[in-house]
């Protein structure tokens, strides 16, 4: 008897269970042919996958054990280190694999934070790990600068913006703290290969339109989850792709996170080759004896471009989206949501006052971004008898480079000094206000505009107040100069412009690779403004469904792994909202506070969603929520806080993949059941209802039979629905009580004396 219909084969992670292999032998393994066509994503995963059957061709949907090329941790190196020690690990499996960079809370000069930083540095030195101290730059940019994120490899980071490495043709995706501890100790992690979406660019960007405008447009145009939890591959003609600079690509790849994707991958092409060759020459001249020069060398580049990875003809994509770059214009994203994208021309006419402006972040803090912002003031000086203008009197402008080397390059070009003379306040190279840390945070009632990636509510400001809108560095600079949202005037709309040209389509059989379906083309006069949540659901008249029997002839797993629960049951507590993000689940102000007691975690759990949650939910409840539960940052406490509240199972219409990863790693169970959410909304959804509702409905999940049974009240009808099965490697982690225990059991024990 095989896996449930539609479930793909898997690669089982090593386990201390003696009967895992016996369990595995019970499952069908059709033995995929090595001739199956693969996307670039699948090919890179294949290179890094371990413990897969000979001849197995990795495809989307497969669970695989992975050995990443590099693993980055930042300030969270300290909690990862504590996990590493607590599981009994004594040495880093492969020091070359690990990179640590202090970049988040670097302006916190408290003794406790400085002591934490000293501990991280001492640990890195002891184990021979590559370490970058506070002030060197944001970890993602350092991996780019220093050659750790290499084209054709798979690199992970315990941060949600690992997607950025895709700008170099390097498959980057986020992992969480426990994953990082596993990689430190064992050299490996796990991943379910996501569906792959093909984003096909045509045309070229008009003057005054940037990579930032491109990704903001994509987030606003396709804001209904089209690429949620997908890997993205960007394609286009040689002419189109050559027009996108590497900095543009890094920006676009970085913000695929905000679009809801797990990765964003650009091709290994001539544009990338030119950039890498220039890097190799630069390091050979200025740092001839550094390790970075060894990474950036022409011989290595010759090998890379002699046989670059490309998608096979006939490779299958889950989605196709086409965007004509030549029809774009400058955009502003937000406020409070990346799903809202508004043409700059529409906002300029509204004279929206700006109080604070930010040219910061790993998204837009490179030398080219600083140069673009400086050019706004230089152009204004030409019109003002050569006198450099100052920013508007009521505006605070903050600048921080993505890395120290990018700042030094901007200083050599003179652009950094231009912004300082105009009144900008420099911040050290780090994450700072982008993650809601002072100085420079918005005050109640203030409006800001930022060149950062994320503008979720609470992220860049005080709780419950409007956050900065996101835009390109030149728009931020022009807004700081004008004192209101404005552009530099570089963009001129073409005379024949009739709106943005784009399309989206489902896959078509036998479609040649990179060729998007042409059956649907839409011209949009502007990007539709949308709220963060979808339109409210109008409750239908309550109906009583007929009792349903379990589907006939189920094809389910014959056994569960030892220690994995056969059934999970409890009362449903309903949080009727979509896009409940990790800050709503676990407030950001606690994220970097170490050793928060479980009682306190339970107290604040879901408090940014509903302050009454902790007084309503009870131990043993089953939390049910809407779509994309757990989106946002990669904070692991979003899962552990729910466990601290006594919730063992979360059911949602859909989940953020990163949240599910955190959940599995901490033995919090997750089940997708959109039908259940629809039914709850039919009965309970009202415009003035409570945010958290006790339903008096009960749910029982029969894990072995892949079946959920719901009873609507007491007495009430029972009805059932089929849910996906769990693969053995996921069961193994949960059965151990989480990934930490799995690692503890997997580490070789020292020989007895």
Task: Write a brief caption for the model.
The protein is 30% helix and 16% strand. It has 753 residues and is of the alpha/beta class.
- Average of per-residue pLDDT values: 84
* Count of β-strands: 28
Strand content: 15-25%
**What class do helices, strands and sheet pairing give?**
alpha/beta
Evaluate the radius of gyration.
Answer: 26 Å
CATH class of one domain: Alpha Beta
Widest β-sheet, arrangement of strands: 25-24-23-22-26-27-28
Terminus-to-terminus distance: 46 Å
The oligomeric state of the chains shown is: single chain
In CATH terms, the superfamily of one domain is Aconitase, domain 4
Q: Describe the main β-sheet briefly.
A: 7 strands, mixed
Task: Please name the CATH topology of one domain.
Answer: Aconitase, domain 4
Write the layout of secondary structure elements.
Elements (H helix, E strand, L loop, with lengths): L19 H6 L14 H9 E2 L12 E4 L3 E4 L3 H10 L11 E4 L9 H17 L2 E3 L6 H7 L8 E4 L13 E4 L2 H10 L2 E4 L3 E7 L8 H11 L9 E6 L1 H5 L3 H9 L1 H4 L3 E3 L4 H17 L4 H5 L2 H9 L12 E6 L6 E3 L7 E3 H5 L7 E4 L7 H16 L13 E4 L4 H10 L1 H7 L3 E2 L21 E3 L18 E2 L2 H10 L17 E6 L16 E3 L42 E9 L6 H4 L12 H7 L8 H4 L5 E4 L11 H8 L4 E4 L4 H9 L3 E4 L1 H11 L7 E11 L4 E5 L6 E5 L5 H8 L3 H8 L7
Parallel strand pairs: 3-4, 3-6, 4-5, 6-7, 9-10, 9-12, 10-11, 15-16, 15-18, 16-17, 18-19, 22-23, 23-24, 24-25
Antiparallel strand pairs: 1-2, 2-8, 12-20, 13-14, 20-21, 22-26, 26-27, 27-28
């Amino acid at each position: 008897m095989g896996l449930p219909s539609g479930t793909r084969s898997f690669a089982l992670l090593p386990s201390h269970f003696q009967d895992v292999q016996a369990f595995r032998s019970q499952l069908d393994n059709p033995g995929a042919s090595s001739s199956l066509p693969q996307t670039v994503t699948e090919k890179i995963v294949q290179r890094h996958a371990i413990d897969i059957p000979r001849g197995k061709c990795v495809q989307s949907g497969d669970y695989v054990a992975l050995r990443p090329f590099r693993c980055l941790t930042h300030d969270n190196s300290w909690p990862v280190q504590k996990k590493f020690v607590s599981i009994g690990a004594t040495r880093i499996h492969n020091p070359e694999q690990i990179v640590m960079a202090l970049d988040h809370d670097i302006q916190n000069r408290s003794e406790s934070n400085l002591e934490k930083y000293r501990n991280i540095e001492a640990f890195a030195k002891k184990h021979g790990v590559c370490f970058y101290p506070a002030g060197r730059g944001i970890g993602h940019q350092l991996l780019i600068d220093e050659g750790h994120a290499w084209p054709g490899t798979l690199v992970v980071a315990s941060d949600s913006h690992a997607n950025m490495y895709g700008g170099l043709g390097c498959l980057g995706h986020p992992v969480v703290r426990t994953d990082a501890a596993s990689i430190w100790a064992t050299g490996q992690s796990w991943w379910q290969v996501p569906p792959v979406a093909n984003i096909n660019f045509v045309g070229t960007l008009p003057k005054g339109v940037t990579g930032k405008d491109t990704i903001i447009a994509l987030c606003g145009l396709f804001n209904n989850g089209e690429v949620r939890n997908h890997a993205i591959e960007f394609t286009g003609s040689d002419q189109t792709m050559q027009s996108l600079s590497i900095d543009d690509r890094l920006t676009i790849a970085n913000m695929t996170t905000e679009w809801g994707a797990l990765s964003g991958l650009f091709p290994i092409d001539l544009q990338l080759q030119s950039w890498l060759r220039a890097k190799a020459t630069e390091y050979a001249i200025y740092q001839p004896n550094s390790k970075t020069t060894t990474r950036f060398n022409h011989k290595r580049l010759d090998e890379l471009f002699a046989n670059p990875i490309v998608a096979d003809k006939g490779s299958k994509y889950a989605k196709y989206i086409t965007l004509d770059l030549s029809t774009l214009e400058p955009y502003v994203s937000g406020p409070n949501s990346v799903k809202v994208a508004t043409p700059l021309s529409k906002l300029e006419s509204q004279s929206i006052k700006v109080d604070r402006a930010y040219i910061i972040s790993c998204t837009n803090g490179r030398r080219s971004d600083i140069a673009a912002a400086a050019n706004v003031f230089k152009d204004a000086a030409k019109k003002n008898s050569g006198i450099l203008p100052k920013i508007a009197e009521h505006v605070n402008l903050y600048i921080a480079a993505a890395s120290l080397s990018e700042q030094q390059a901007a200083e050599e070009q003179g652009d950094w000094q231009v912004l300082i003379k105009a009144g900008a306040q420099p911040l050290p190279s780090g994450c700072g206000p982008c993650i809601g840390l002072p100085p420079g945070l918005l005050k109640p009632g203030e409006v800001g505009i930022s060149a950062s990636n994320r503008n979720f509510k609470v992220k860049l400001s005080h709780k419950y107040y409007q956050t900065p809108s996101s835009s390109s560095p030149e728009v931020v600079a022009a807004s700081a100069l004008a004192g209101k949202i404005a552009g530099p005037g570089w963009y001129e709309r073409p005379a024949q412009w009739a709106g943005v040209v784009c399309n989206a389509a489902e896959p078509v059989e036998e479609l040649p690779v990179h060729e998007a379906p042409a059956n649907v083309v839409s011209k949009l006069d502007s990007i539709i403004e949308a709220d963060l949540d979808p339109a409210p659901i109008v409750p239908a008249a309550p109906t009583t469904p007929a009792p349903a029997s379990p589907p006939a002839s189920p094809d389910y797993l014959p056994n569960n792994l030892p220690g994995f629960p056969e059934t999970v049951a409890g009362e449903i507590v309903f949080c009727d909202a979509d896009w409940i993000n990790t800050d709503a689940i676990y407030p950001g102000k606690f994220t970097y506070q170490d050793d928060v007691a479980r009682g306190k975690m339970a107290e604040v759990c879901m408090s940014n969603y509903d302050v009454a949650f902790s007084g309503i939910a009870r131990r043993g409840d089953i939390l049910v929520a809407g779509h994309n539960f757990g989106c946002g940052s990669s904070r692991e406490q979003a899962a552990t806080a729910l466990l601290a509240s006594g919730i063992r199972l979360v059911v949602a219409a859909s989940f953020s993949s990163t949240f599910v990863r955190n959940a599995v790693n901490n033995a919090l169970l997750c089940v997708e059941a959109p039908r259940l959410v629809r039914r709850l909304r039919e009965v309970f959804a009202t415009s003035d209802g409570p945010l958290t509702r006790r339903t008096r409905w009960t749910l029982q999940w029969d894990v072995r039979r892949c079946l959920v049974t719901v009873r609507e009240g007491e007495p009430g009808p029972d009805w059932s629905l089929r849910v996906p099965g769990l693969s053995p490697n996921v069961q193994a982690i949960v059965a151990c009580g989480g990934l930490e225990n799995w690692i503890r059991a997997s580490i070789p024990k020292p020989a007895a004396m």
